[in-house]
Every structure is written in structure tokens, then in C-alpha cells.
């Protein structure tokens, strides 16, 4: 995720913006910044977990509405397709798993703003450490940020004799919704599309005048499989998926990656008004042995779409730059990041 400051600064510097686009929206930081600035926005991401979290950044509902929806689903829904096997028996207590499956089944076909928030709440409470006092997560002991692989997790729980405890889903939902929605700003519209950015942009009808985005960094692995349990909750299979599902970073060569980015910038230009602004944060890891500036500028040039580069900067605020320089000196493992600002000069081809 890039810090909220980056899209906020771009919005502050381009006050004529009326509609914002992020073709690699991740968890929706740009969309949230647009909302704070009072603007509608559209985000696209190929990762279902990222898209579901981003969608929740656009809507405004009350905690009461979320709890009412969850209560209704738990009362009326069906516990079809409860996954079976060692992992599931050790990860969730039987009644908790039943509730989880009922909520999963119902949410797969619900698209209201309240459902978007309930979905994001569920992704947040699905797994995490067991805390003292009232539980915050539905699973047996697990990291919060990524889901352990099943065989490893089962060994961990068995060796320690850690049986899963009953966690009533509704109680955790209620607490999380209250916290998440405590002070939400007014919503200003927009939408998140789950899919490939080029394909989705080609289908869109809207036009934008500010694009703030960050493609996957070159050389950085995307750990899609670490989110396997959250992917399952969103309708994916009940096992770890090792594919990369159209992730743009999984290209066979640097040239292919540049080519793929160029297609995104061209498709973006077709959806933008003349004189639109494009702000990109991009980076590579030092072991990728390449220059992010060269790669990004080459991709903009290859797009032949009318994007004229106005500025190239080292990413971040001066204090962050200093911190980065320090890290480089010490460990040599910091990510090399730049910000590129371009403007759409001509009517795009
Ligand atoms: C660096 S992250 C963006 C993070 C985002 N700025 C945030 O604050 O959360 C890049 C995103 O691009 C997405 N992505 C990769 N390939 C894509 C494609 N072909 N189409 C759409 N999104 C893609 C990844 O799933 C990932 O979420």
C-alpha cells in the first residue's frame, strides 16, 4: 500500500479534478483519498481480496445496518458446502465454521453497500491471534496479515494441543463494525471492478481527469497464496491456490513487463479527458538490478498515448527520503521508489 499522503497530495495539487481513477487500486488508498476530497472514483484490481477491501472504502453505512444484515443472514441462510478435513476442524470450532459458511454463501450474491462493509469486516476478522478478553478473530491462533499453509497450521495447533474455541460470529462482527465505522466521512460515489485493468478500462464508459496509481513493483513477488483463506471466503476454493491469476508483475522479462504497463497507460488514456494528470508511484527491489525510472518512462513512451512526463521525483517526503538513504547505507535492501507525473497532451489515439 502507498501512504494516504501520496494520493492526497496529488488531489491537492490538481484541484480541477472531477473523477479519479486507480487502475491498480489494491486496498483502495486512492479511492479513500478521493472520497476525503469529495470526489467520485473508480478502482480496478485483479486480486479479489484487494478489490473487496477497496469496495468498502467507498461506502457509508451504519454499524447497526451491518449487524442487522449479519443477523438476518445467520437466521435465514444455508450452511451448504461446509469444508471438511483436518485444517477446517482445527482452524474453526464447528458452530463458528457453520456461521462462517452461512455468511460466505449469502455474501457471494449480495452487492449492497451494507454487504460490501460486512464482507470487509469478515475478511478482517477471519483469522488472527487469540487475544485475552473478548475475541477479535474467528480462527484458532493464526497470523492476522496472512493465512498459514494448512499442513503447517495443523502441525502447530496439534503440537500445542490448541483446540479451536467457540467464537460467536455476530459478536465479533458487532465489535469490528462499530470500530471500523466509528467516524466515516461522507461518501462521494464510485465503484471497484474486479478484473484486469486493460480489459476493464476497455469496457468502461466513464471519463476521468486524475489518475493516481501504483503498479506492482518490478521484482517483488505477489503473495496471492498468503491470502488463500480470505480468497476462499470470497468464493474461491477451500485450498491454497498457487497461480498468479493475471498479475501484471508475473511477466517473463523486463521488456514484457514494460509492454504490459504500456498497454495499461494506453487504455487509461482512452478513458481520460485531454489535460488529465497521471501520477504513478513505482519501484523495484535492488535484487531486480534495474532502474524503475527507466522502466516506467519506457512504458509511458511505448504507450504512444499522449502522456507527457512533467516531473520525476524520488518517492516520499524529504524525511522519508532521508530514512531511505539511511536504509540503503545500512542494509542495501530498501525498495527503490520514484513518483512520475504526466499529463495527457493530445486527444489519445
Ligand atoms: C502496488 S499494489 C497497489 C497498492 C495500492 N496503491 C494500495 O494502496 O493498496 C498493485 C496492485 O495491482 C494489482 N494488479 C496486478 N496486476 C493487475 C492487473 N493485470 N490488473 C489489475 N490489477 C492488477 C495487484 O493485485 C495489486 O493489488
Automatic annotation (TrEMBL):
GO biological process: DNA restriction-modification system; methylation
Protein EC: 2.1.1.113
InterPro entries associated with the record: MeTrfase_CN4_CS, SAM-dependent_MTases_sf
Flavoprotein as UniProt keyword: no
Keyword Nucleotide-binding: no
Catalysis performed (reactions): a 2'-deoxycytidine in DNA + S-adenosyl-L-methionine = an N(4)-methyl-2'-deoxycytidine in DNA + S-adenosyl-L-homocysteine + H(+)
CDD domains, A to Z: AdoMet_MTases
GO MF term list: DNA binding; site-specific DNA-methyltransferase (cytosine-N4-specific) activity
Swiss-Prot/TrEMBL keywords: Methyltransferase, Restriction system, S-adenosyl-L-methionine, Transferase
Annotated family: Belongs to the N(4)/N(6)-methyltransferase family. N(4) subfamily.
Protein name, as recorded: site-specific DNA-methyltransferase (cytosine-N(4)-specific)
